[in-house]
Amino acid sequence: MSSIAETASLLDLNDLSYIDAISQRILRLQALHNDSLTSLQLSIDSLTRQNENIAASIKSITSSQQTKQTRHDLKKLENQIFNTARSITSLNMQINSLKLSYNDNLKRLNSLHSTISQFQTPQNSNTPNNLIYKLYNATGVRIVNDEVVILNKQSNKISTLSLDDSYSDYFVSNFIWDAI
């Protein structure tokens, strides 16, 4: 007997129906597999086209004149911001320096006021000597303990001259007028 006939004699009719069912299922699985592959291939093709379109859009955007101009403008603005920040920092330093100078000048002014207040003379008497003192005070000249103290209000300078008998009245007068 032939091998096919031997195999057929060994198989039962139920076995053939099982084999046929298995064969049908295998065909359906292959069809599902092919459908799935086809669907995936269509998705891949669609995504590839989208990727190409996006890449082309990016290339056209990055190489356009408007984009180049925008980049240039952004760099200019960035430089302006940097320069403005540098200017603000410089101005803050100048302001702080001016504040320190102002505080020093204010301390010096207070010191000058306290020095001047030490040299105040009584002003309730109208004797000739007090009138001379008032005139001297009005011009910024004070005489204290054989020393002439002159306050120049315009330049905020104090000059002093120790009165000595060797100085002539002419010299003292010229010194006072030069210091005022």
Question: How does this model look, in words?
Answer:
- With 180 residues, this protein is mainly α.
- The chain has 3 domains: 3-63; 67-118; 122-180, Double Stranded RNA Binding Domain (2-Layer Sandwich).
- Helix content is 76%, strand content 8%.
- It is built from 5 helices and 3 strands.
- The protein has helices at 3-10, 13-63, 65-118, 128-139, 169-179, and strands at 141-143, 147-152, 157-162.
- A 3-stranded antiparallel sheet has the order 1-2-3.
- A hairpin with a 3-residue loop joins strand 1 (141-143) and strand 2 (147-152).
- The longest helix has 54 residues, at 65-118.
- It is rod-shaped.
- The N and C termini lie far apart (150 Å).
- The relative contact order is 0.04.
- The mean pLDDT is 82.
- Component of the NDC80 complex.
- Acts as a component of the essential kinetochore-associated NDC80 complex, which is required for chromosome segregation and spindle checkpoint activity.
